[in-house]
Amino acid sequence: MSAPREEFAAALAKAVATSRLEREEIILLLNAQGEEMEALCQAADAVRAKYLGRTVHLRAVIEFSNYCVRNCFYCGLRRDNRRLSRYRMTPAEIFTAARRARAEGFRTVVLQAGEDPSYHLRELCRLVYRLKSELDVAVTLSVGDLSREAYRELRAAGADRYLLKHETADPALFASLRPGTTFTARVKRLHWLRELGYQVGSGNIVGLPGQTIASLAADILLLKELDVEMAGIGPFIPHPATPLGAFPPGSLSLTLKVLAVTRLLLPLAHLPATTAVATLSPEGRRRALKAGANVVMPDLTPFPYRQHYAIYPGKTRPRGEGRDAFRWWQQELAKIGREVDCGYGHSPKATLIFQ
Question: Where, in this chain's numbering, is S-adenosyl-L-methionine bound (predicted)?
Answer without folding.
Answer: 167, 178, 186
